[in-house]
């Protein structure tokens, strides 16, 4: 199979995939891999297979094709192809929750000389790195990475990247329990979809609706949460996006639990553990539980540098500075300081996030 025929078959597979004939598209692309002698074409079809298996939730297969793509890029001896394949390898490990590997591959991407990382793919690399740091609960580095990704998006007018970063920031602020920001960012993503999304895949709308559903639930707006989650699930079912379907099912369960549809819905693990230890008079276990909690707070730097209280125990408004240190908004407003209390940077102007 020559170069022209390879290109035609790749396009045929894309048309099938976009019309939700996923298995037929995969068959076409696999035949290209078996028969094509065109290295560039093989590289492209491997990228299609990586994306398709990612959206189907087949992450081990995604990783397998990413590894083959790395080998193909090395045969081509092209730095840009190598960068793209390392990014796919990072994303594959991110999906498999191998976050340390994700960060390592992202750093490899950023260190490759003579590539287009600074202009086109750098934002995507920073986003993947931010998601990995968030998975490891390294919150400041996650925020720094998301900040970089947003700057890439704004500087290059990349609205698709901005949409994805806003959804990740929604997850970030949901974890640190600033629920207003957890809602703001996916709402911003939804606005981008509405403004620019006529030619976009519906997956961006589904993604933003899911993150809005999570934030609405956390804020107690259960009707809005259900509406957004239903919209996201409808698109996920239509396009066979199994990972998003699973997330929507979990969100539905949380909404029903918040409504009191399930017995013991209001109990939280932390409160339950503490009450058990106290009722049994197990002071050693109680003390160990409290100490470990505060150790985790110190390890992740998840506390306000002004009042010293931990962030994430309750819903509170937060402010991130350009240095990516996080404080209670009320503490910054009351302090009157003109520099970051943690690192003493002079600028107090908020960053993008």
Automatic annotation (TrEMBL):
Pfam families in the record: Rapsyn_N, TPR_8, zf-RING_2
TPR repeats (start-end): 123-156
Domain RING-type: 304-344
Sorted UniProt keywords: Metal-binding, Receptor, Repeat, TPR repeat, Zinc, Zinc-finger
Repeat as UniProt keyword: yes
Family: Belongs to the RAPsyn family.
PANTHER family in UniProt: 43 KDA RECEPTOR-ASSOCIATED PROTEIN OF THE SYNAPSE
Name of this chain's protein: 43 kDa receptor-associated protein of the synapse isoform X2
Organism annotation: Galeopterus variegatus (Malayan flying lemur)
């Amino acid at each position: 199979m020559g170069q022209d025929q390879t290109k035609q078959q790749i396009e045929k597979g894309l048309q099938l995939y976009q019309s939700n004939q996923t298995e037929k598209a995969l068959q076409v692309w696999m035949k290209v891999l078996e028969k094509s002698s065109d290295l560039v074409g093989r590289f492209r079809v491997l990228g299609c297979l990586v994306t398709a298996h990612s959206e189907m939730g087949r992450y081990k297969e995604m990783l397998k094709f990413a590894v083959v793509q790395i080998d193909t890029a090395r045969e081509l001896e092209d730095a840009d192809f190598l960068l793209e394949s390392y990014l796919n390898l990072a994303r594959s490990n991110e999906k498999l929750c191998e976050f340390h590997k994700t960060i390592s591959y992202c750093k490899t991407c950023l260190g490759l000389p003579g590539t287009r990382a600074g202009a086109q793919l750098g934002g995507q690399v920073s986003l993947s790195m931010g998601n990995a740091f968030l998975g490891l609960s390294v919150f400041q580095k996650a925020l720094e990475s998301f900040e970089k990704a947003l700057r890439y998006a704004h500087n290059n007018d990349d609205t698709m990247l901005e949409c994805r970063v806003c959804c990740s920031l929604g997850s970030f602020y949901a974890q640190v329990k600033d629920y207003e920001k957890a809602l703001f960012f996916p709402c911003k993503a939804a606005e981008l979809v509405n403004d620019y999304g006529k030619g976009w895949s519906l997956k961006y709308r589904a993604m933003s609706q899911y993150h809005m559903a999570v934030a609405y639930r956390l804020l107690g707006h259960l009707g809005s949460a259900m509406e957004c989650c239903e919209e996201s699930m409808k698109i996920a079912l239509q396009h066979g996006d199994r990972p998003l379907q699973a997330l929507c099912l979990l969100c539905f369960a949380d909404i029903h639990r918040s409504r009191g549809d399930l017995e013991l819905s209001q109990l939280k693990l932390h409160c339950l553990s503490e009450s058990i230890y106290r009722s049994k008079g197990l002071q050693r276990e109680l003390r160990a539980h409290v100490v470990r909690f505060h150790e985790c707070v110190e390890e992740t730097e998840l506390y306000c540098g002004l009042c010293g209280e931990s962030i994430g125990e309750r819903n509170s408004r937060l402010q991130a500075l350009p240095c990516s240190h996080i404080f209670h908004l009320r503490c910054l407003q009351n302090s009157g300081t003109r520099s970051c209390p943690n690192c003493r940077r002079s600028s107090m102007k908020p960053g993008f996030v």
